[in-house]
Automatic annotation (TrEMBL), chain A:
InterPro entries xrefs: aa-tRNA-synth_II/BPL/LPL, B3/B4_tRNA-bd, DNA-bd_dom_put_sf, Fdx_antiC-bd, Fdx_antiC-bd_sf, NA-bd_OB-fold, Phe-tRNA-ligase_IIc_bsu, Phe-tRNA-ligase_IIc_bsu_bact
Cofactor(s), names only, from the UniProt record: Mg(2+)
GO cellular component: phenylalanine-tRNA ligase complex
Subcellular location: Cytoplasm
Protein known as: Phenylalanine--tRNA ligase beta subunit
Species per Swiss-Prot/TrEMBL record: Fulvimarina endophytica
Lineage: Bacteria, Pseudomonadati, Pseudomonadota, Alphaproteobacteria, Hyphomicrobiales
Binding residues annotated for Mg(2+), in chain numbering: 456, 462, 465-466
PROSITE patterns reported in the protein's UniProt record: B5, FDX_ACB, TRBD
Domain B5: 401-478
TrEMBL record, chain B:
Catalytic activity of the protein: tRNA(Phe) + L-phenylalanine + ATP = L-phenylalanyl-tRNA(Phe) + AMP + diphosphate + H(+)
HAMAP family reported for this sequence: Phe_tRNA_synth_alpha1
Molecular functions per Gene Ontology: ATP binding; magnesium ion binding; phenylalanine-tRNA ligase activity; tRNA binding
Originating species: Fulvimarina endophytica
Range of residues in the leader sequence: none
Listed GO CC annotations: cytoplasm
Name under which the protein is recorded: Phenylalanine--tRNA ligase alpha subunit
Family, similarity comment: Belongs to the class-II aminoacyl-tRNA synthetase family. Phe-tRNA synthetase alpha subunit type 1 subfamily.
Cofactors (names): Mg(2+)
């Protein structure tokens, strides 16, 4: 919503400065978006051309001497080179001098030398000052224009333009009059009450109106015959131009003017171009209109139209049609002032993609009681500007306006805002805003009637807001929130704590945290077990962002590929976020996932003088998964491993970490080459996902005391064994069998060598272990050691089918 | 004679170039059959008078030779170590691999959520969460969005496929549905913040189809706009780490609050690429807030004449951009490793109030 200061002062009697007004507007909820104080015009002066002689070296240029009054150049004439065809001796025009910014050219003038002749300024055209598109010559003012004065003052260009950013409520502020009322209520002046003259007219309106749709809540029409539709008066043109509207002709300009002045959109039809009655109805198959913006729109059943025998003439509440529009030849005009249902207009405008000043107002809600006065106001201006004779009003389909009434307890303002406002003051504010006090229920409350122009006000909280915005939010003192306890306890849920623990643990392993989109392409989702219909977006922003992700891995692998494409192939990235297995809240699961690419292992990537980092492998992913699990409190010593990871992993280089036989806590591994190919990825990748919600919550212990630490005074003894085993026997079977030989004595079994091939032959491998024996009571004798060693060998041979290596 | 001998032996010791030749001298002089040992053996045959002079003389000779050998041995040992150390010299300017904890990074969004959490935890707030995939009821209806509100349109909101009844789930457009979910399950007093992912059909330098919001909700029997102002002022001072900060509350409009306000904070934007808070005379819009709308309280199962409260919402990505200076929101979700390394935080830099939120 834009308006000028002088326009506001038509309705508001005030001495307040521009700054006070703009500050107050923002303070009462009409946020000032922009103030153009039009300072850009200030430097330009009215100047008279004293002499004009041809340029010695250029046919089309003239050298002028210009008098810009006593304040310019100490009253001495200036030399200006000018190319305008109308530059001549005696012309009074507008001078810009070195240092002045010319808005239409976007340049700051300097002292120039044009074909060898110095020029100390420029005589401006209208286009150069952005007053119009006129550029055939320089501005040619009447001979009596006051030389030396500021052009802006002379041409009334100093009127500041204020733009407010209107929230979806406050329909009253879509008109300058309503803004003036709000400002007056806030104490910044007095509203100039300007009752609209009632014009009855003569004779019936010859065009009849039939309303066939609920979208129309009233339709008033009148013909004014015998008008002459020239240019609108300069004062009106100036204001329209100042707020960015192009003057068209008097009839159209009058409707635009009232739209902004009163928030009351109107439409004018050229009566000669309307055939038969006007029918207000919903669009039909095949309806279309060439609208006033020069575009053709197809109008379906969701769009309300105004049609005559020729077809659709106007899109209700949004835009008129070219065919019945008014131009200079118009002599009889039909003026429409109608009411439209806001939601229908908003929907129609959105579906057509048309934003107009009319739609802006109708979708907020236009004052139903100003429909007929609006028509009369337009009629008055038409009669004054264009002449003519008005018919009577034809008014159809008016829905009765029942004003809303709200009970306001006087304590409510204090209850919600903390402000202490006396009941009389509350009522005064509401009265100034146009509310009617129906009755006062004793000391405690009042019945408040809502004015017809405030459809946004419905309850007592709305009335509190009205009082608050007029008093000023800055009058509300900050008040500490009373603490609920002395020292606050833990506030994170277990899930939230796990998120954080996993995140910091993975970052501490050299991985960079990414945040990727929750939606991925259908292909990628399908490759990771997703892509179900329930998780497909109906309106994705791009084709490759269509499906809710079933896993973090596709997003991370794709991110690693993007980094590779930029020249960064060795990346370790992770994410802790949600994945979606269905559209129910319980289907959303927290996952910590990560991908290492190239050589980005724990120790670092790439080549170094002390050795190049190897390609990442399943073991990097396993270590990451274990680290994340340990960080979130999983019992590392109780985890089981199997090889049943999901299909997108490499079947021979992947596994799952489980707690018990069924509870899967994580998957890890290298990826299936077909899946990598589908994601456009190549090279070494290893990744994992830890399912953070899967881990059962630990029982709260009664004490935080740690178990007693029992330290042995005796040195541990270490013994090495190497076994030859069938290749498919897993190392864990061997280590478990060895450990079982003496559970109290054996404290650790560590695999320190794995070797296959060579003399061992096909299908066999050698695994070497170091067994640590920790005596607790007495030093071990040779016989003790012999006994436990024999037991270890026997256990391993039985469990694995292997033999002790000779 | 023995003085010549001493001079000669000490010179030989001094000249010994290694341990072996030094040992040879020791054996030759002080060994069982060494020259000096032999001379000492002669003492027994001497007269007491002779022994009186010769004894001390020979003992002194033996001691001086012995200590010369010991000294020389130390010198030789030191020289040997020095020589070995010299051969062990390496180029200490060669680079070493950085530690994983120095390389890893926490994304600015996670870090800022931790900063926000630290501040609100101190004010007694708990953290609530809810699903990203929401029903129309929780995302709109319960929050007092009228039918036909523009936010319910396809061009603003992401919808999923319709179910059998034609109802379509949405990707939540704000974290506000969690207000309702919390009120449904928890009796006042309620003090929660709700950080999380939100989604809207939008994409440019300051809008992304996915972004992050933090919502706050206080419901009890007395919470009013004065309290709301205090909470937000305390938060902004703590978050932007300035001692004082001017804030401007402007009446505004949201369907789920009444009265509603937008809040601007004082800042100085005169330096390119940098925003300073708590100084300057520029205002920057930072959040929306208001008293919870009576219809929203009702939807949460609370009587708006008994309970009251306030709520606010702000963009996590946006305040991260303001505080740490990232120019483009879309880069947050691109996982460009160079961006994460530059704008990310070290894993052990955990924001706390006692240590300062940021380094």
């Amino acid at each position: 919503m834009k308006f000028t200061l002088s326009w506001l002062k038509d309705h508001l009697d005030t001495d307040a400065s521009l700054e006070e007004i703009t500050e107050r507007l923002t303070a009462i909820g009409l946020e000032v978006e922009d103030v153009d104080d039009r300072a850009v015009f200030k430097p330009f002066r009215i100047a008279r051309v004293l002499s004009a002689v041809p340029h010695p070296d250029a046919d089309k240029l003239r050298v002028l001497t210009v008098d810009a009054g006593p304040e310019v150049n100490d009253g001495k004439p200036l030399q200006v080179v000018c190319g305008a065809p109308n530059a001549r001796e005696g012309l009074v025009g507008v001078l810009g001098r070195p240092g002045d910014y010319v808005p239409g050219l976007d340049v700051t003038l300097g002292v120039g030398k044009i074909r060898g002749v110095e020029s100390y300024g420029m005589m401006c055209s209208e286009r150069e000052l952005q007053l119009s598109e006129e550029h055939d010559g320089i501005i040619d003012l009447p001979a009596d224009a006051p030389v030396g004065t500021r052009f802006a003052d002379y041409a009334d260009l100093a009127d500041p333009v204020i733009e407010i950013n209107l929230t979806p409520n406050h329909p009253e502020a879509t008109g300058v009059y309503g803004i003036a009322r709000d400002l007056a209520a806030s104490g910044l002046g007095t509203l100039k009450e300007t009752p609209v003259e009632r014009i009855e007219g003569e004779g019936e309106c010859p065009v009849r109106v039939r309303v066939e749709t609920d979208v129309c809540a009233g339709f008033a029409l009148r013909r004014v015959s015998g008008v002459s539709n020239g240019a609108s008066p300069l004062w009106m043109q100036k204001r329209l131009k100042a707020i960015g509207l192009r003057p068209i002709n008097a009839l159209v300009d009058i409707t635009n003017y009232i739209t902004f002045d009163r928030g009351r959109p109107l439409h004018v039809f050229d009566a000669a171009k309307v055939e038969g009655d006007l029918i207000v109805r919903q669009g039909r198959e095949g309806d279309e209109i060439l609208a006033l913006d020069g575009k053709t729109y197809a109008l379906g059943p969701d769009i309300c139209v105004i049609a005559d025998a020729n077809g659709v003439e106007s899109i209700a509440g949004i835009m008129g049609g070219e065919a019945s529009g008014c131009d200079e030849t118009t002599t009889d005009v039909l003026v429409e002032s109608a009411l439209w249902e806001p939601i229908s207009i908003a929907k129609a405008g959105r579906s057509l993609g048309i934003i107009t000043d009319a739609r802006y107002r109708f979708e907020r809600g236009v004052d139903p009681l100003f429909m007929e006065p609006g028509l009369d106001l337009a009629t008055r201006l038409i009669l004054d500007i264009c002449g003519g004779t008005p018919s009577k009003r034809s008014v159809e389909g008016v829905a009765e306006h029942v004003p809303g009434v709200v009970t306001l307890p006087f304590t409510e303002v204090n209850r919600l805002t903390g402000l202490d406002i006396a009941p009389e003051r509350q009522l005064e504010i509401l009265r100034n805003l146009g509310f009617t006090i129906r009755s006062q229920n004793g000391e405690d409350a009042a019945e408040i009637e809502i004015p017809s122009w405030r459809p946004d006000v419905a309850g007592k909280a709305d009335l509190v807001e009205e009082v608050m915005r007029i008093v000023g939010v800055d009058q509300i003192a900050s008040r500490p929130l009373a603490p609920l306890s002395g020292v606050n306890g833990r506030i994170l849920t277990t899930t939230q704590s796990r998120d954080r623990a996993a995140r910091r643990a993975l970052a501490a392993r050299g991985m960079a945290e990414a945040v990727t989109y929750s939606f991925i392409s259908k292909d990628h989702a399908e490759a990771f077990g997703g892509g179900s219909e329930a998780l497909r977006l109906a309106n994705p922003i791009a084709a490759d962002m269509s499906d809710m992700r079933p896993s973090l891995l596709p997003g991370l692998i794709a991110a690693a590929a993007r980094n590779f494409a930029r020249g960064y192939g060795d990346t370790a990235i992770f994410e802790v976020a949600a994945v979606y297995r269905g559209d129910q809240p319980a289907d959303q699961m927290r996952v910590a996932g990560g991908v290492r690419r190239g050589t980005a292992g724990l120790a670092g990537s790439g080549r170094a003088w002390d050795g190049a980092a190897p390609s990442v492998s399943v073991y990097d992913a396993k270590a990451d998964a274990l680290a994340a699990l340990e960080a979130v409190g999983a019992p590392a010593d109780k985890l089981m491993i199997d090889r049943e990871a999901s299909a997108w992993y490499h079947p021979g280089r992947s596994g799952r970490l489980k707690l018990g036989p069924k509870l899967v806590l994580a998957e890890f591994g290298e990826f299936h080459p077909k899946v990598l190919k589908k994601l456009g990825a190549a090279g070494a990748h290893a990744g994992f996902e830890v399912f953070l919600d899967a881990l059962p919550e630990a029982k709260r212990k009664a004490t935080k005391t740690k178990p007693v630490l029992a330290l042995s005074a005796l040195q541990p003894v270490r013994r090495d064994f190497a076994f030859v085993l069938p290749s498919d026997v897993e190392a864990e079977r061997l280590t478990k069998a060895a450990a079982a030989a003496d559970k109290t004595l054996i404290s650790e079994v560590r695999v320190f060598d794995v070797f296959a091939g060579g003399a061992l032959g096909e299908g066999r491998k050698s695994v070497a272990i170091e067994v640590t024996l920790q005596p607790s009571e007495k030093t071990l004798t040779e016989a003790d050691l012999e006994a436990v060693s024999t037991k270890i060998v026997a256990n391993v041979e039985t469990a694995t089918g292997g033999t002790l290596r000779a | 004679m023995s003085e010549t001998l001493e001079t000669e032996v000490l010179a030989a010791i001094e000249a010994a170039g290694d341990e072996a030749s030094l040992e040879a001298i020791r054996v030759a002089e002080l060994g069982k059959k060494g020259r000096i040992s032999e001379m000492m053996k002669g003492l027994g045959k001497m007269s007491p008078e002779e022994r009186k002079t010769e004894g001390p003389r020979l003992n002194g000779l033996r001691d001086r030779v012995q200590s010369a050998i010991t000294e020389r041995r130390e010198v030789l040992a030191d020289a040997a170590i020095a020589a070995r150390l010299a051969t062990e010299t390496v180029d200490v300017t060669l680079p070493v691999r950085s530690s994983p904890a120095a390389r890893g990074r926490i994304h600015p969004i996670s870090q800022v959520i931790d900063e926000i959490t630290a501040i609100y935890a101190d004010m007694g707030f708990a953290i609530a969460e809810g699903p990203d995939i929401e029903t129309d009821y929780y995302n709109f209806t319960a929050l007092n969005f009228p039918e036909g509100h523009p936010a319910r349109e396809m061009h603003d909101t992401f919808f999923l496929q319709p179910d059998e009844s034609g109802a379509r789930k949405v990707l939540r457009t704000h974290t506000s549905p969690v207000q309702i979910r919390t009120m449904e399950t928890q009796k006042p007093p309620i003090r929660i913040i709700i950080p999380g992912k939100t989604y809207r059909q939008d994409s440019d330098a300051t809008h992304s189809p996915m972004f992050h919001q933090v919502e706050g909700l206080v419901v009890d029997k007395s919470a009013n706009i004065g309290n709301l102002k205090w909470v937000l002022e305390e938060f902004c001072k703590a978050f932007f780490e300035v001692d004082s900060l001017k804030m401007r509350f402007r009446p505004s409009f949201f369907p789920f609050t009444e009265p509603s306000m937008e809040v601007d904070i004082q800042c100085d934007r005169s330096r390119p690429g940098e925003v300073r808070f708590g100084e300057g005379d520029d205002w920057m819009e930072i959040l929306g807030c208001g008293m919870v709308h009576p219809n929203v309280l009702r939807a949460g199962g609370l009587d708006p004449d008994v309970y009251q409260g306030f709520a606010w919402g702000m963009g996590i990505d946006r305040i991260a951009m303001l505080k740490y200076g990232m120019p483009d929101l879309r880069a947050f979700f691109d996982a460009d490793i160079r961006w994460i390394e530059h704008y990310g935080f070290r894993p052990l830099d955990m924001p706390t109030l006692f240590g300062g939120l940021s380094q």
